[in-house]
Each structure stands twice: as structure tokens, then as C-alpha cells.
Write a structure and sequence with these properties.
By secondary structure, the protein is α/β, with parallel strands linked by helices. It has 19 helices and twelve strands. Strands 5-1-6-7-8-11-12 form a seven-stranded parallel sheet, sandwiched between helices. The radius of gyration is 24 Å and the shape is globular.
Length: about 525
């Protein structure tokens, strides 16, 4: 066992649905191909459609196009398909990282930081205290929870700490619920920081399983199913006779639901609690699903009791925190378009119950905050734009909200990442009122272009070859960038745009012929 006398508990990232890779392997463990992300090649997709596509265009009705497309998708999704009991059909191996980030090779380290860029946290706690738990996103939620428990034991042994911090991201929030249900009483967790986490599923999952969808614009839905092939496929469907695109989408949805979704307890874990029983009865009442239904019922019970679980653990000293996005619409194929969300998960879920005005509206002028969970009448938990009442969320004192935050882009919100570091490393930072630099409500910020493109180019300049005027422009741009990073109060996107412009102009200037 390792020993460590530092003040920082090791942190385990529990990533989202697109952040763990899974391989299909043979009986000897040799890799065959990627199971997740899906290995759906454009040439296979479009090549297989040529015959039925030509017939459909000729006869102006569906001549096997929808069936052929569904067949191709079923085949591509087969590696992650489940049995009627909810177990994987295929022999799979998760691409895992059973060691700290410090022990990762450069490729592994780049991948982890690309998924969840917590370099700033690692600078404080050390990369030897940062871990990434990879799992099968379409597997068994309680098997994954057991794997997380084993992983935590490894982390404790390796670091010498008796507790860890957890950062459940997106789908990782659902997995964390199963973990807390099965293993929360072991006392292995110091803090849980939910990061745009699915704590009450996602209304998208509810609408998809309910078939509560809009098909006027099929490309967003196709993007969820066909990935990078969606644009080309959507273009083809736009040329199809009336009724064909809708039939194709229905067939694709059937293929994905039947092959993967309804046989995956991880996917059932992102069904909103209030919709679960109706959808379970719609899909899982057949006797062949008895085992699967028992598994999903177990999770649903934990889901219903999540607030009670959190409350019990807080009384034992476990800290719970959440970072949410709000003010964005769901994709246009989702009928629940009135709900405030980060584009993927509704804020009602990520905040565990915060009341939000419908998108495009504000709380009534005479609205008084509910104080469902905040009992201090002096606290103001109403968002500045009067669209969110955080007092009705289960963690009103420890939940932060970012307006216009896109779900996947939270990885490029440097303020949210700095906030995460603050929560996990500063024992005095214990509420939304602890530091005015990190208010409960803030605006989203996306520094992707700056961090990964412009800033590296600017910093890589050979200063010895630059003229004084060029140095002045470069240093001015870098100073402007530093000032932006120091400012944790985002008003809108204008500050990022100004820094991008300054850096771009500096880079263009130092790479011009005059600089050579």
C-alpha cells in the first residue's frame, strides 16, 4: 500500500457516454474492432443503400430503403447489443486506465484530458491523484458500479488515502447513483462533484422511448444514430418521396431500440424517474424480460431514493456539489422543447429538481422563491435572468448554473473547470456564497479555439526573431488572454471573441513574411 500525507483526496472521473472506448475481442482477447464508438463506415452505409435507394427514387415509394438501412445499423450496433437479460451479447473489453494519469503514456493522457480537461486540478493534487474510470456505456449499470467500487479500492491502495472524490460526468451521474446505492455506505467517498450529470435521466431518453419525436428535420436525430454519416444521409432523405424519410427514421429507431437501448440497464438508468414505470410496462412486460426488468426496477428504486441517499451520506460528512447548464433547447427532434437544458440533459435533472420557467419565458413578476430545500429566507436563489429558482433544487447551496452552457462544451468552459478545482481543493469553499468570484449563476464560456489553437501558436513564437512592434502586439494579446482567464465572471461571449481576435491578429503578424 502506498502512503500519502497530502491534504488532497485522489479524484476519480466517472465519464459520460461518449468518453469510454470499448473493443470487440475474440476468444483469445485479440481486438477485432471498435464496438463503441460504433464502427459504422460511410462506404458500408452508402454502398449498401445503392440498390434500394435507386428503386425508391424510381418508384417514388419505399422500396426496401428503410429495411436495408435498419439492417445496416443493426449490424453495426450488434457488438454492443444486449441479451434479453440485459447482458452483453458479444465478448467485449473496455479500454481502461487502471492507474493514475501520472502513469499513463502520452497518448492515454491526451485522451483523458481531451475527454475531461482537468489539468488545472491535477496541478494542485498531482497527476498521481487523478484517475479515469472507463466502463461500458451500454452494459449493466450495477456491474459498472461494482467495477467502480473495485477501481476505488485500487486507488485507495495505490495512494494510501482512505477516501476518494468522484466527478460523475453526464451518464456518469446515473452510474454514480447505482454506486451510491450499492456501495455508498462503505465510507470510501469524501466528495461527489456532479458535472452536467444525469441525476434524473434525460428527457431526450424519455421522448425517444415514448416516440414523442418530431421528424420535420431528421438530421439531428440521424446524427445521434448514424454519427458522421448523418449529413449525407439527411441530404438523401430530403430528395425522397413524401412519407419515406419518416418511415426510414422509424425503422432506424426500431433498430436502435430493439438492438441496444431496451436491453441495456445503463440506458434505462437515464430514463426520467417519473416516466420509468410507464415505459417499462410498454417494453419489458414480456416474461422473457423478467430478469432485465428486475434489474431496471432495482435501479429505479435507487433513483427514487437518490435524495434520501444523498441526505444520509451528507450527514456522514460526504460533500455533494453540482455544476449545471441551462437556457439551451433540446435538439429539434425532441418534443419537450419547452424545457430548459444544456441541449442534452434538462436542468431539472442536473440540479435535482430546480424549478425553471419554460424556455423563452421568465418567472412571473410576483414569483417568490419556493425555498423547497433552502431554509434561509435571506438567501437569493433566483437567477439574474429570472428563469431558474435554485432553492427548489435538492442542493441549493452547492449547485452552480451556467447560462447557455452546451452540454459537451462544458469541457471548454474554463470557469466551470476552475470551479471544479476550487470545490475539490479548498476546504473553505463550501457553498455558492463562499466566493464572489464563483457566484451561483454565471454565463457559459468556450475557450476551445484559444486553448487548443491560438494560444499554443502564440506561445510557440521564437521571440528572438520578432521585431519590437511584433513583440508588443504578441505580448498585448497574451496579456489580454491572461486577464480573461483571471476573470471568472462571464457576462457574454464578447470577451472570448476579443481575445480570439487579438491572438489571431498576433499569430498572423508573427507568421507573416516580415517575421521570417
Amino acid at each position: 500500500m502506498g502512503t500519502c500525507n497530502c491534504d488532497y483526496a485522489p479524484t476519480v472521473i466517472v465519464p459520460g457516454i461518449g468518453q469510454s472506448k470499448v473493443d470487440l475481442v475474440d476468444e483469445k482477447g485479440n481486438r477485432i474492432k471498435s464496438a463503441w464508438p460504433l464502427d459504422l463506415k460511410g462506404e458500408d452505409l452508402m454502398g449498401g443503400l445503392k440498390g434500394p435507394l435507386l428503386k425508391t427514387m424510381t418508384f417514388r415509394r419505399d422500396m426496401g430503403l428503410s429495411d436495408k438501412l435498419a439492417e445496416i445499423v443493426r449490424k453495426a450496433a450488434q457488438p454492443i447489443a444486449g441479451t434479453d437479460e440485459g447482458d452483453p451479447v458479444s465478448r467485449l473489453r473496455v479500454v481502461s486506465y487502471p492507474y493514475s494519469v501520472a502513469e499513463c503514456n502520452e497518448e492515454e493522457k491526451r485522451y483523458i484530458y481531451k475527454m475531461v480537461p482537468l489539468e488545472n486540478l491535477a496541478e494542485i493534487i498531482g497527476e498521481d491523484h487523478l484517475y479515469f474510470y472507463a466502463y461500458h456505456s451500454f452494459g449493466s449499470v450495477y456491474d459498472n458500479a461494482a467495477g467502480l467500487d473495485e477501481f476505488i479500492q485500487t486507488v485507495k491502495t495505490s495512494t494510501g488515502h482512505d477516501k476518494v472524490n468522484l466527478i460523475p460526468v453526464s451518464l456518469g451521474g446515473a452510474l454514480a447513483t447505482a454506486y451510491l446505492d450499492a456501495y455508498g455506505d462503505k465510507g470510501d467517498v469524501a466528495k461527489v462533484l456532479y458535472f452536467v450529470a444525469a441525476l434524473n435521466g434525460s428527457q431526450i431518453a424519455g421522448d425517444v422511448l415514448s416516440r414523442n419525436l418530431l421528424t420535420d428535420d431528421v438530421q439531428p436525430l440521424l446524427r445521434e444514430i448514424a454519427g458522421s454519416n448523418a449529413k449525407e444521409l439527411s441530404s438523401i432523405l430530403k430528395m425522397m418521396p413524401k412519407g419515406v424519410p419518416e418511415k426510414v427514421v422509424e425503422s432506424l429507431l426500431d433498430a436502435v431500440l430493439d438492438t441496444v437501448i431496451i436491453k441495456s440497464t445503463m440506458m434505462w438508468a437515464i430514463v426520467p424517474c417519473q416516466l420509468y414505470e410507464g415505459l417499462r410496462d410498454k417494453y419489458l412486460l414480456d416474461k422473457r424480460y423478467d430478469v432485465l426488468r428486475a434489474k431496471t426496477d432495482r435501479y429505479h428504486k435507487a433513483h427514487e431514493n437518490l435524495k434520501e441517499m444523498i441526505d444520509n451520506l451528507r450527514q456522514k460528512g460526504v460533500g455533494f456539489y453540482s455544476i449545471c447548464g441551462y437556457g439551451k433547447k433540446f435538439p429539434p427532434f425532441v418534443k419537450s422543447c419547452h424545457m430548459s437544458s444544456d441541449g442534452t440533459i434538462d436542468v431539472f435533472s442536473t440540479s435535482l429538481g430546480a424549478y425553471c420557467a419554460p424556455l423563452g419565458e421568465t418567472l412571473p413578476e410576483d414569483y417568490v422563491q419556493k425555498n423547497t430545500y433552502c431554509k434561509d429566507s435571506a438567501h437569493n436563489h433566483i437567477s439574474p435572468d429570472r428563469t431558474v429558482d435554485a432553492s427548489s433544487g435538492f442542493l441549493p447551496e452547492t449547485t452552480w448554473y451556467f447560462l447557455d452552457q452546451v452540454h459537451d462544451d462544458v469541457a471548454f468552459n474554463d470557469i466551470a473547470l476552475e470551479l471544479a478545482k476550487k470545490i475539490l481543493t479548498d476546504p473553505e469553499f463550501d457553498s455558492v456564497f463562499a466566493d464572489p468570484r464563483f457566484p451561483q449563476f454565471n454565463n457559459a464560456r468556450n475557450i476551445r479555439k484559444i486553448k487548443y489553437d491560438l494560444l499554443p501558436k502564440a506561445k510557440a513564437a521564437d521571440r528572438s526573431k520578432l521585431f519590437p512592434g511584433q513583440l508588443a502586439v504578441l505580448d498585448g494579446a497574451l496579456t489580454r488572454a491572461d486577464a480573461m482567464f483571471e476573470n471568472t465572471l462571464a457576462v457574454d461571449s464578447s470577451e472570448v471573441a476579443e481575445v480570439e481576435t487579438a491572438l489571431r491578429e498576433a499569430v498572423e503578424l508573427i507568421t507573416s513574411d516580415a517575421a521570417q
